[in-house]
Specification:
It is a single chain. This protein has about 350 residues and is α/β, with parallel strands linked by helices. It folds into 2 domains: about 5-135, no CATH class; about 145-345, 3-Layer(aba) Sandwich (Rossmann fold), CATH 3.40.50.300. About 45% of the residues lie in helices and about 15% in strands. The strands form 2 sheets. An 8-stranded mixed beta sheet has the order 5-4-6-3-7-8-9-10, sandwiched between helices. Strands 1-2 form a two-stranded antiparallel ribbon. A hairpin with a 7-residue loop joins strand 9 (about 320-325) and strand 10. Helix 1 packs parallel to helix 13 (about 340-345) and helix 2 (about 10-30) packs across helix 6 (about 115-130). The longest helix has 17 residues, at about 10-30. It binds guanosine-5'-triphosphate.
Length: about 350
Protein backbone atom coordinates (compact mmCIF):
# COMPACT_ATOMS: atom_id res chain seq x y z
CA UNK A 1 0.00 0.00 0.00
CA UNK A 2 1.39 3.44 -0.86
CA UNK A 3 1.93 5.77 2.06
CA UNK A 4 -0.68 8.15 0.63
CA UNK A 5 -3.31 5.38 0.66
CA UNK A 6 -2.35 4.55 4.22
CA UNK A 7 -2.49 8.21 5.21
CA UNK A 8 -5.83 8.67 3.45
CA UNK A 9 -7.27 5.55 5.12
CA UNK A 10 -5.96 6.31 8.58
CA UNK A 11 -6.46 10.04 8.77
CA UNK A 12 -10.19 9.49 8.50
CA UNK A 13 -11.08 10.82 11.92
CA UNK A 14 -9.47 14.16 11.12
CA UNK A 15 -10.55 14.17 7.50
CA UNK A 16 -14.12 13.27 8.23
CA UNK A 17 -14.26 16.10 10.73
CA UNK A 18 -13.00 18.58 8.16
CA UNK A 19 -14.46 16.99 5.01
CA UNK A 20 -17.88 16.42 6.54
CA UNK A 21 -17.64 19.85 8.15
CA UNK A 22 -17.23 21.47 4.72
CA UNK A 23 -20.10 19.41 3.29
CA UNK A 24 -22.30 20.59 6.16
CA UNK A 25 -21.32 24.22 5.73
CA UNK A 26 -22.29 24.17 2.06
CA UNK A 27 -25.50 22.22 2.79
CA UNK A 28 -26.48 24.55 5.65
CA UNK A 29 -26.58 27.54 3.37
CA UNK A 30 -29.46 26.05 1.46
CA UNK A 31 -27.01 24.30 -0.79
CA UNK A 32 -29.35 24.18 -3.76
CA UNK A 33 -28.04 22.38 -6.80
CA UNK A 34 -27.39 24.77 -9.61
CA UNK A 35 -25.33 24.34 -12.69
CA UNK A 36 -22.69 26.98 -12.70
CA UNK A 37 -19.21 27.17 -14.07
CA UNK A 38 -16.82 26.19 -11.31
CA UNK A 39 -14.90 29.07 -9.86
CA UNK A 40 -11.60 29.48 -11.60
CA UNK A 41 -11.16 32.14 -9.05
CA UNK A 42 -7.81 33.67 -8.68
CA UNK A 43 -8.13 36.92 -6.83
CA UNK A 44 -7.47 40.02 -8.87
CA UNK A 45 -4.36 40.70 -6.85
CA UNK A 46 -3.24 37.49 -5.22
CA UNK A 47 -0.78 37.80 -2.32
CA UNK A 48 0.91 34.63 -3.51
CA UNK A 49 -0.14 32.56 -6.45
CA UNK A 50 -2.56 29.89 -5.36
CA UNK A 51 -3.53 27.11 -7.72
CA UNK A 52 -6.68 28.00 -9.62
CA UNK A 53 -9.51 25.62 -8.98
CA UNK A 54 -9.79 23.32 -11.94
CA UNK A 55 -13.02 21.49 -12.60
CA UNK A 56 -12.91 18.78 -9.96
CA UNK A 57 -13.24 15.16 -11.00
CA UNK A 58 -16.70 13.81 -10.24
CA UNK A 59 -16.82 11.94 -6.95
CA UNK A 60 -17.97 8.33 -6.72
CA UNK A 61 -21.60 9.36 -6.28
CA UNK A 62 -21.30 11.65 -9.25
CA UNK A 63 -19.78 8.87 -11.32
CA UNK A 64 -22.49 6.42 -10.30
CA UNK A 65 -25.32 8.77 -11.07
CA UNK A 66 -23.70 10.57 -13.94
CA UNK A 67 -23.65 13.82 -11.99
CA UNK A 68 -20.69 16.07 -12.61
CA UNK A 69 -19.01 18.13 -9.95
CA UNK A 70 -20.53 21.28 -11.36
CA UNK A 71 -23.97 19.88 -10.43
CA UNK A 72 -22.98 19.73 -6.78
CA UNK A 73 -24.86 21.86 -4.27
CA UNK A 74 -23.32 25.28 -3.93
CA UNK A 75 -23.41 28.07 -1.43
CA UNK A 76 -22.63 31.71 -1.84
CA UNK A 77 -19.41 32.64 -0.10
CA UNK A 78 -20.43 35.34 2.40
CA UNK A 79 -19.41 36.50 5.88
CA UNK A 80 -21.64 33.97 7.58
CA UNK A 81 -20.17 31.10 5.63
CA UNK A 82 -16.65 32.30 6.35
CA UNK A 83 -17.40 32.43 10.06
CA UNK A 84 -18.66 28.86 9.94
CA UNK A 85 -15.53 27.85 8.06
CA UNK A 86 -13.28 29.54 10.64
CA UNK A 87 -15.13 27.89 13.49
CA UNK A 88 -14.86 24.46 11.88
CA UNK A 89 -11.10 24.86 11.31
CA UNK A 90 -10.60 25.94 14.93
CA UNK A 91 -12.57 22.89 16.07
CA UNK A 92 -10.25 20.77 13.92
CA UNK A 93 -7.30 22.04 16.01
CA UNK A 94 -5.87 24.31 13.37
CA UNK A 95 -5.57 27.15 15.87
CA UNK A 96 -7.26 30.53 15.76
CA UNK A 97 -4.58 32.50 13.92
CA UNK A 98 -4.08 29.89 11.25
CA UNK A 99 -7.81 29.35 10.81
CA UNK A 100 -8.34 33.10 10.34
CA UNK A 101 -5.59 33.44 7.78
CA UNK A 102 -6.59 30.37 5.82
CA UNK A 103 -10.18 31.56 5.69
CA UNK A 104 -9.15 35.05 4.60
CA UNK A 105 -7.03 33.61 1.79
CA UNK A 106 -9.90 31.43 0.63
CA UNK A 107 -12.22 34.45 0.65
CA UNK A 108 -9.84 36.71 -1.23
CA UNK A 109 -11.42 37.61 -4.57
CA UNK A 110 -14.13 35.01 -4.18
CA UNK A 111 -16.78 36.76 -2.06
CA UNK A 112 -20.23 36.36 -3.57
CA UNK A 113 -19.18 33.38 -5.70
CA UNK A 114 -21.11 30.15 -5.35
CA UNK A 115 -18.83 27.34 -4.28
CA UNK A 116 -19.34 23.60 -3.97
CA UNK A 117 -17.98 21.47 -1.20
CA UNK A 118 -15.43 19.84 -3.53
CA UNK A 119 -14.17 23.25 -4.60
CA UNK A 120 -13.94 24.33 -0.99
CA UNK A 121 -11.92 21.20 -0.19
CA UNK A 122 -9.57 21.92 -3.09
CA UNK A 123 -9.14 25.53 -1.96
CA UNK A 124 -8.49 24.46 1.62
CA UNK A 125 -6.05 21.74 0.55
CA UNK A 126 -4.17 24.35 -1.52
CA UNK A 127 -3.92 26.71 1.46
CA UNK A 128 -2.78 23.93 3.80
CA UNK A 129 -0.21 22.64 1.32
CA UNK A 130 1.11 26.20 0.90
CA UNK A 131 1.61 26.56 4.67
CA UNK A 132 3.19 23.13 4.99
CA UNK A 133 5.48 23.11 1.95
CA UNK A 134 8.35 25.09 3.55
CA UNK A 135 8.50 22.78 6.60
CA UNK A 136 8.40 19.46 4.76
CA UNK A 137 12.04 18.46 5.03
CA UNK A 138 13.45 14.99 5.67
CA UNK A 139 15.96 14.52 8.47
CA UNK A 140 19.15 16.13 7.12
CA UNK A 141 22.17 13.86 6.91
CA UNK A 142 25.54 15.41 7.76
CA UNK A 143 29.01 14.16 6.88
CA UNK A 144 29.93 14.26 10.59
CA UNK A 145 30.49 10.79 12.12
CA UNK A 146 28.70 9.95 14.24
CA UNK A 147 25.79 12.26 13.48
CA UNK A 148 24.07 12.53 16.84
CA UNK A 149 20.27 12.57 16.83
CA UNK A 150 18.74 13.33 20.22
CA UNK A 151 15.09 12.34 20.52
CA UNK A 152 12.92 14.16 23.05
CA UNK A 153 9.28 14.51 23.97
CA UNK A 154 6.65 14.03 26.64
CA UNK A 155 5.75 10.62 28.04
CA UNK A 156 4.29 8.20 25.56
CA UNK A 157 4.52 10.55 22.57
CA UNK A 158 6.09 7.78 20.48
CA UNK A 159 9.85 8.44 20.83
CA UNK A 160 10.93 4.81 21.11
CA UNK A 161 8.66 3.69 18.28
CA UNK A 162 9.86 6.55 16.06
CA UNK A 163 13.51 5.72 16.74
CA UNK A 164 12.83 2.08 15.81
CA UNK A 165 11.10 3.07 12.58
CA UNK A 166 13.75 5.65 11.60
CA UNK A 167 16.62 3.31 12.48
CA UNK A 168 15.07 0.64 10.28
CA UNK A 169 14.75 3.06 7.35
CA UNK A 170 18.32 4.37 7.68
CA UNK A 171 19.61 0.81 8.04
CA UNK A 172 17.72 -0.18 4.88
CA UNK A 173 19.39 2.79 3.16
CA UNK A 174 22.77 1.28 4.06
CA UNK A 175 23.62 3.48 7.05
CA UNK A 176 25.55 2.20 10.02
CA UNK A 177 23.20 3.10 12.88
CA UNK A 178 23.50 2.76 16.68
CA UNK A 179 20.78 3.45 19.25
CA UNK A 180 21.40 4.52 22.86
CA UNK A 181 18.73 3.75 25.48
CA UNK A 182 18.74 7.01 27.42
CA UNK A 183 15.72 6.22 29.59
CA UNK A 184 17.91 4.57 32.21
CA UNK A 185 15.21 4.74 34.89
CA UNK A 186 12.67 2.44 33.27
CA UNK A 187 13.72 -1.13 32.54
CA UNK A 188 10.60 -1.60 30.40
CA UNK A 189 11.60 1.34 28.21
CA UNK A 190 15.04 -0.18 27.62
CA UNK A 191 13.52 -3.56 26.79
CA UNK A 192 11.10 -1.95 24.35
CA UNK A 193 13.97 -0.19 22.60
CA UNK A 194 15.88 -3.47 22.40
CA UNK A 195 12.91 -5.09 20.67
CA UNK A 196 12.86 -2.23 18.15
CA UNK A 197 16.65 -2.56 17.72
CA UNK A 198 16.20 -6.23 16.85
CA UNK A 199 13.44 -5.47 14.37
CA UNK A 200 15.53 -2.78 12.73
CA UNK A 201 18.76 -4.82 12.86
CA UNK A 202 20.52 -2.08 14.82
CA UNK A 203 22.58 -2.44 18.04
CA UNK A 204 21.18 -0.81 21.19
CA UNK A 205 23.54 0.53 23.85
CA UNK A 206 22.26 0.38 27.41
CA UNK A 207 23.49 1.46 30.85
CA UNK A 208 22.77 0.01 34.30
CA UNK A 209 19.30 0.87 35.59
CA UNK A 210 19.21 4.20 37.40
CA UNK A 211 22.53 5.48 35.99
CA UNK A 212 22.96 9.04 34.73
CA UNK A 213 21.47 9.37 31.23
CA UNK A 214 23.98 12.13 30.41
CA UNK A 215 26.91 9.80 31.02
CA UNK A 216 25.25 7.09 28.90
CA UNK A 217 24.93 9.66 26.10
CA UNK A 218 28.64 10.50 26.43
CA UNK A 219 29.70 6.82 26.49
CA UNK A 220 27.47 6.11 23.50
CA UNK A 221 29.18 8.88 21.54
CA UNK A 222 32.62 7.45 22.35
CA UNK A 223 31.55 3.94 21.34
CA UNK A 224 29.76 5.09 18.19
CA UNK A 225 32.92 6.95 17.17
CA UNK A 226 35.15 3.95 17.89
CA UNK A 227 32.82 1.65 15.94
CA UNK A 228 32.66 4.06 13.00
CA UNK A 229 28.87 4.46 13.29
CA UNK A 230 27.36 7.06 10.96
CA UNK A 231 24.24 7.77 12.99
CA UNK A 232 23.72 7.65 16.75
CA UNK A 233 20.11 7.98 17.86
CA UNK A 234 19.72 8.75 21.55
CA UNK A 235 16.36 7.96 23.17
CA UNK A 236 15.47 9.95 26.27
CA UNK A 237 12.93 9.45 29.04
CA UNK A 238 9.55 11.02 28.43
CA UNK A 239 9.17 14.23 30.41
CA UNK A 240 6.28 16.54 30.96
CA UNK A 241 6.92 20.21 30.33
CA UNK A 242 6.04 21.09 33.93
CA UNK A 243 8.58 18.75 35.53
CA UNK A 244 11.45 21.17 36.11
CA UNK A 245 13.85 18.48 37.40
CA UNK A 246 13.43 16.33 34.31
CA UNK A 247 13.77 19.30 32.03
CA UNK A 248 17.04 20.18 33.81
CA UNK A 249 18.19 16.61 33.26
CA UNK A 250 17.58 17.06 29.53
CA UNK A 251 19.58 20.29 29.47
CA UNK A 252 22.41 18.39 31.19
CA UNK A 253 22.33 15.63 28.55
CA UNK A 254 22.75 18.30 25.88
CA UNK A 255 25.64 19.96 27.78
CA UNK A 256 27.49 16.67 28.20
CA UNK A 257 26.99 15.71 24.53
CA UNK A 258 28.52 19.08 23.59
CA UNK A 259 31.57 18.39 25.73
CA UNK A 260 32.37 15.47 23.47
CA UNK A 261 31.40 17.25 20.25
CA UNK A 262 30.52 20.96 20.35
CA UNK A 263 28.58 20.60 17.09
CA UNK A 264 26.35 17.87 18.57
CA UNK A 265 23.53 17.00 18.89
CA UNK A 266 23.25 17.55 15.16
CA UNK A 267 19.53 17.02 15.26
CA UNK A 268 17.18 17.31 18.19
CA UNK A 269 13.92 15.68 17.24
CA UNK A 270 10.83 16.53 19.19
CA UNK A 271 8.28 13.74 18.91
CA UNK A 272 4.70 14.96 19.28
CA UNK A 273 1.55 12.93 19.71
CA UNK A 274 -1.19 14.29 17.43
CA UNK A 275 -3.89 13.22 19.87
CA UNK A 276 -2.74 15.92 22.31
CA UNK A 277 -4.06 18.59 19.92
CA UNK A 278 -3.30 22.18 20.91
CA UNK A 279 -1.06 21.05 23.80
CA UNK A 280 1.53 20.17 21.15
CA UNK A 281 2.10 23.92 20.68
CA UNK A 282 3.18 24.46 24.29
CA UNK A 283 5.33 21.32 24.14
CA UNK A 284 7.25 22.84 21.22
CA UNK A 285 7.74 26.10 23.12
CA UNK A 286 9.08 24.41 26.25
CA UNK A 287 11.36 21.90 24.55
CA UNK A 288 12.69 24.58 22.22
CA UNK A 289 13.92 26.58 25.21
CA UNK A 290 15.78 23.66 26.74
CA UNK A 291 16.95 21.55 23.91
CA UNK A 292 17.16 23.63 20.77
CA UNK A 293 14.68 21.52 18.83
CA UNK A 294 15.74 21.21 15.18
CA UNK A 295 12.79 19.27 13.81
CA UNK A 296 9.50 17.56 14.55
CA UNK A 297 7.99 14.14 14.09
CA UNK A 298 4.25 13.85 14.57
CA UNK A 299 2.91 10.44 15.58
CA UNK A 300 -0.54 8.91 15.98
CA UNK A 301 -2.19 10.81 13.15
CA UNK A 302 -4.22 7.65 12.79
CA UNK A 303 -7.02 7.48 15.29
CA UNK A 304 -7.28 11.20 16.06
CA UNK A 305 -9.60 13.94 14.88
CA UNK A 306 -6.93 16.51 15.79
CA UNK A 307 -4.63 16.20 12.76
CA UNK A 308 -5.20 19.89 11.99
CA UNK A 309 -2.74 20.73 14.76
CA UNK A 310 0.12 19.95 12.38
CA UNK A 311 -0.97 22.91 10.24
CA UNK A 312 -1.01 25.18 13.31
CA UNK A 313 2.49 23.97 14.26
CA UNK A 314 3.89 24.59 10.80
CA UNK A 315 2.31 28.03 10.65
CA UNK A 316 3.42 29.11 14.10
CA UNK A 317 6.95 27.70 14.45
CA UNK A 318 8.14 26.92 10.94
CA UNK A 319 10.19 24.01 12.30
CA UNK A 320 10.94 21.25 9.81
CA UNK A 321 8.53 18.33 9.96
CA UNK A 322 10.70 15.33 9.17
CA UNK A 323 8.20 12.52 9.33
CA UNK A 324 4.70 11.52 10.36
CA UNK A 325 3.52 8.32 12.01
CA UNK A 326 0.22 6.67 11.19
CA UNK A 327 0.45 3.39 13.10
CA UNK A 328 2.46 1.13 15.34
CA UNK A 329 4.22 -0.97 12.70
CA UNK A 330 7.79 -0.46 11.47
CA UNK A 331 6.67 0.88 8.07
CA UNK A 332 4.01 3.21 9.47
CA UNK A 333 6.30 6.23 9.38
CA UNK A 334 7.22 8.20 6.30
CA UNK A 335 8.62 11.51 5.16
CA UNK A 336 6.11 14.33 5.35
CA UNK A 337 4.57 15.26 2.00
CA UNK A 338 2.59 18.52 2.25
CA UNK A 339 0.35 17.93 -0.77
CA UNK A 340 -0.55 14.36 0.27
CA UNK A 341 -1.16 15.47 3.83
CA UNK A 342 -3.34 18.41 2.78
CA UNK A 343 -5.47 16.24 0.49
CA UNK A 344 -5.83 13.46 3.04
CA UNK A 345 -6.70 15.96 5.77
CA UNK A 346 -9.60 17.48 3.87
CA UNK A 347 -10.77 14.12 2.58
CA UNK A 348 -9.82 14.43 -1.09
CA UNK A 349 -8.56 11.52 -3.15
CA UNK A 350 -5.04 11.57 -4.60
N1 LIG B 1 -1.58 4.44 16.62
C1 LIG B 1 -0.31 4.79 16.74
N2 LIG B 1 0.35 4.45 17.85
C2 LIG B 1 1.64 4.84 17.95
C3 LIG B 1 2.30 5.59 16.95
N3 LIG B 1 3.57 5.83 17.37
C4 LIG B 1 3.68 5.25 18.59
N4 LIG B 1 2.52 4.65 18.94
C5 LIG B 1 2.19 3.92 20.19
O1 LIG B 1 2.25 4.82 21.27
C6 LIG B 1 2.66 4.16 22.45
C7 LIG B 1 3.83 4.92 23.09
O2 LIG B 1 4.91 4.84 22.19
P1 LIG B 1 6.42 4.85 22.69
O3 LIG B 1 7.28 4.79 21.47
O4 LIG B 1 6.64 3.85 23.74
O5 LIG B 1 6.47 6.28 23.34
P2 LIG B 1 7.66 6.95 24.15
O6 LIG B 1 7.60 8.40 23.85
O7 LIG B 1 8.94 6.27 23.89
O8 LIG B 1 7.16 6.65 25.64
P3 LIG B 1 7.93 6.94 27.04
O9 LIG B 1 9.26 6.30 26.93
O10 LIG B 1 7.03 6.31 28.05
O11 LIG B 1 7.97 8.40 27.20
C8 LIG B 1 3.01 2.74 22.02
O12 LIG B 1 1.95 1.90 22.33
C9 LIG B 1 3.19 2.86 20.52
O13 LIG B 1 2.91 1.65 19.85
C10 LIG B 1 1.55 5.96 15.77
O14 LIG B 1 2.01 6.64 14.84
N5 LIG B 1 0.26 5.53 15.74
Amino acid sequence: MSFFSKLRDRLTRSSSKIGAGLDDIVAEGGGETQVEAPIAASPAVAPEPSKPVATPAPGIVGRLFGRSASDEPRRELDDEMLEELEEMLIQADMGVETALRVTANIAEGRMGRRVSSTELKELLADEIARIMAPVARPLPIFPKRPQVVLVVGVNGSGKTTTIGKLASQFRAAGKNVVIAAGDTFRAAAVEQLQVWGQRAGVPVMTAPEGSDPASLAFDAMVKAETDGAELLMIDTAGRLQNRQDLMEELAKIVRVIRKKDPSAPHNTLLVLDATTGQNALSQVETFQKLADVSGLVMTKLDGTARGGVLVALADRFGLPIHAIGVGEQIDDLDAFDPRDFAKALVGLDA
